Each structure stands twice: as C-alpha cells, then as structure tokens.
Amino acid sequence: MYKLGVDLGGTKIEAVLLDENFNVIKRKRILTPQNNYQKILDSISSLVMEISENVSNYSLGICTPGAISKQTGLIKNSNTQCLIGKSLKEDLENKIGKKVFMENDANCFALAEATLGVVIDFDLVFGVILGTGVGGGIVINKKLYPGRTNIGGEWGHHTLHRDGNTCYCGKTGCVETYISGPSLENHWTKLTGKSQYLPEILTSTDNDNWQKWKNEFLENFGYGLANVIDILDPDAIVLGGGLSNIDFLYTEGKESIHNQVFSDLVDTPILKNKLGDSAGVFGACMLD
Ligand SMILES: [Zn+2]
C-alpha cells in the first residue's frame, strides 16, 4: 500500500509518493493557479495522476490551507480565498474517482512531526503553527485528534486579552492577533512608527523599543501555550511555521510558558520541527 500526499499551498502545490516504509518514491512541485478554483482542481488532479502512474494501490491525502467545516464539508478560514465555501474534498473525489482524506495544515504538520519528525518518541503531541496565522494540531499515539467539531487544537483563537485586538474570526483578543507574524509587525509599527518585516525587527536589538516588543511577545507566547498545557498536558510541543526559526522561543519562550503553567512540575519540551516546509506533504500521506 503506497501513500500519496498533496500539500495545497497559496503559492505551490506539492505531491509526494511514499512506499510502505515511508521512503520517497516520487516528488513534484508546481505553482498554485491564482484565484481560480477550477484550475486548482485540474492541477491537483493531473499531479495525482502523474505521481501515481503505474501504482494502483495507494491512499490519497490532501493538506489544505484552512479548515473543513464538519457541518457543511466546505472549506472555511482559508487564506487561499477562492477555496472558501467550496466542497474541495467532494469535488476532488469526483474528479479523481478515489476517496480523499483531507486536513488543514496545522493538523498535517503535527501528524508529520509525530510520525517522521522530531516528536516521533512522544505519545501526546501538540503541534503549533506560528506564521501568518496561529494554528495547532493534537496527535495521540500517531493519530490525529481533530475533536468533535474539528476545532481541537485551535489555540490561535483562545482569548488572551479580553477587549483586546480585533480578530477576523469575529472575537477580540485572540492569541493570533498578538503573536502571528503580521500582528507582531503591526505592534512593532505602533511602538516605533517603523514599518518593517519580522526578520528586520528581530535584528533591531539596538532600538529602544526592542526589549519591550520582545517581552510582550514572550509573555503572550507564554500565556497562550501555558493555557494549552493546563488543559492538554502534552508530552511535547513542536513549533512550525516561519516564526519557529526564532531561537529565543526555545529558551526564554519556553521559560515564559513554564512560568505560567499550573503545576509544581513543568518540563514540557518545546521543540523545533525537523521537517520544515515538507511537513504538510508528509502529513497528508499519513491521513488514511
Ligand atoms: Zn480569532
């Protein structure tokens, strides 16, 4: 039994075929057609045909940006906006003529890291995506736990500050509005009047506001993940997404989390991902 995974991203679509021992047999990347749902369906379908050539027995998993509503089966909360409100899973199943397993990128990330990545030796894993958005996924004994209504692990929309920043989800004070890449950049602009991207901000240590910006980031990161630990008490937390490259999250960030947890023993490992960009496509393979 082979495993075929597809990672549908905003800029690229990647597919990989694994054998039963998770060895990579084939792999290919193409650009994502912009603002055209029909063309996205066509691209995924032809990529699957090409990668699965001469292979009859395989499972097919797709990693999508955004969540799949358990109620309607339609894509919601996606930053690839032409997918919103579409029945992507059903449309692909009809087009390809095969059952499709589908999960959002945070869930695929968590599953990939727990199966092939840095948290392979842990039973209960919380996978975190910190990037343009803030997401999370729960994996228990190498199986995804999406929850009763598919919102298990969505810590990005926990309320961190009542009456805080406005969030696109309709609430205020969500974690995502404080520690996603764009919200950290916005906060920097408020403090300094400068419009800069995160990599530049991170090296602006001589700016008078840098320590304040960093302390607030660490505090919000700490409270956000301490809340998760208080409820889930995972064996390990693995960080992914663009912000997972920030080294101080694994030292001062970890300390900030541990300081807020309600326990006399707090030693939850906070680990950097191993698979990087490839987590989505490998996670998609593991969905069956
Ligand atoms: Zn929100």
Notable characteristics:
9 helices; 288 residues; 5-stranded mixed sheet; binds zinc ion
Describe the protein in words.
This protein is an alpha/beta fold and 288 residues long. It has helices spanning 37-51, 88-96, 105-115, 176-179, 181-192, 198-202, 210-232, 252-260, 279-285, and strands spanning 2-8, 12-18, 24-31, 58-64, 67-68, 75-76, 101-104, 124-130, 134-140, 143-144, 236-240, 270-272. It has a 5-stranded mixed sheet with strand order 3-2-1-4-7. A 5-stranded mixed sheet has the order 10-9-8-11-12, covered by helices on one side. It has a two-stranded antiparallel ribbon with strand order 5-6. Helix 1 (37-51) crosses helix 2 and helix 3 crosses helix 9. The protein starts with a strand and ends with a helix. Bound molecules: zinc ion.
List low-pLDDT spans: none
Ligands, deduplicated: zinc ion
Based on helices, strands and strand pairing, what is the structural class? alpha/beta
Question: How is the main sheet built?
Answer: 5 strands, mixed
Overall form: globular
Given the structure, what is the number of helices?
A: 9
What's the total count of β strands?
Answer: 12
Quaternary form: single chain
Write the element-wise H/E pattern from the N-terminal end onward. EEEHEEEHEHEEEHHHHEHEH
Helix share bin:
25-40%
Order of strands, main sheet, comes to 3-2-1-4-7
The gyration radius over C-alpha positions equals 19 Å
Quote the beta fraction.
15-25%
Mean pLDDT: 94
N/C terminus separation: 11 Å
Summarize the structure.
This protein has 288 residues and is an alpha/beta fold. It is built from nine helices and twelve strands.
